[in-house]
Amino acid sequence: MPSGADQSVFDLVAAVAALSGGSTLVMATRLGVRRNNVRGAWGVLTFTFKEALRTKWLVVFAVTFFLLAADIPLRILGEFNGVSAVVSQQGFPVLLVDSFPLVPLLALPFGAVSIVDDREAGTMQYLLSNPISKFDFFVGRVSGLLLATTTVIFAGFGGAAVLLYLSSAALLKTVLVLMLTAALLNAVMLALALIISEVTSRRATAVGAAIFVWLLLTTALGLDTLSYAVYWKASAAAALSLVFLDPLEASRIAAVEAAHLNQSQTFGQSDYLALHFLGSNLLSVAVVSVLAWFVGLTVLGFVVFSYQDGN
């Protein structure tokens, strides 16, 4: 069994692998024993993946993540001032964690128009008129979108790390942990986006709702002051619930703990509160929280999809 930083990588790889498996198992259990059209689901997956990669939205985000991770202005400034590249390497993981609020902006608007577009274009009705069930269509669509958006995260962050910091093997391991954690957050946001897409009837409404949710997560839900107020007025359990009911904050905590980053550079008051009460269990609780969000939202999304959209 690996240890130290390798153990963190192992745990997060296992968590990512459990994403599709866990949600698929729960949905399959709900449906009972049935024969699935694996070829049909695979066809929806590959079609969704290819279609997604052709959109400008994903290309823009891949370039944005790359430029953000590369931190070109700081590197140019360092060259002019004679500052060693090691300085920027040390701040690179922290920069990735600080960019986590942008991850929902990738999945939310993109996923929110998926079902709406399928419904308006008649794609869904056409596919469901063939020997393919709602379950197969939903699994293929979710898997294709998840694969496409995760590819963007790895291409942007990973590409910058490989091209600019290839000489540091330790840094690449840290970046791998952070990318896997970002993939967890992306999966949660994509599951939420699909629910938005299912309950809205127009593309513009779905995009507006997705942007509103992103703004709510990144600006309105400032938990530092609120969590401490709840802690003093209510209880530690209530304060911790506020922290882990926010998937963005939970994923940030998981990233910092798994990558063994400097907490003084990345933690806020609510994070230190969680660390005080959970100690060494903080990473496990944070990862389980994000996974629970994904499984719960995915199952809810399938339930809504199965009852709402006709054959």
Q: Describe it for me?
A:
The chain has 311 residues and is mainly α. The protein has one domain. 84% of the residues lie in helices and 0% in strands. It has 17 helices and no strands. It has helices at residues 5-31, 38-53, 56-70, 72-81, 85-98, 103-112, 114-121, 123-128, 134-165, 169-199, 203-220, 223-233, 236-244, 247-258, 263-266, 269-278, 282-308. The longest helix is centred in the middle third of the chain and has 32 residues, at 134-165. Mean pLDDT is 74; it is low at 1-6, 28-34 and 83-87.
Give the structure's gist in a few sentences.
The chain has helices spanning 5-31, 38-53, 56-70, 72-81, 85-98, 103-112, 114-121, 123-128, 134-165, 169-199, 203-220, 223-233, 236-244, 247-258, 263-266, 269-278, 282-308. With 311 residues, it is mostly helical.
What characterizes the major β-sheet?
Answer: none
Q: Strand fraction band? A: under 5%
The 3D shape can be described as globular
What is the number of domains? 1
Write the layout of secondary structure elements.
Blueprint: H1 5-31, H2 38-53, H3 56-70, H4 72-81, H5 85-98, H6 103-112, H7 114-121, H8 123-128, H9 134-165, H10 169-199, H11 203-220, H12 223-233, H13 236-244, H14 247-258, H15 263-266, H16 269-278, H17 282-308
Q: Which characteristics define this entry?
A:
single chain; 311 residues; mainly alpha; 17 helices; globular; disordered N terminus
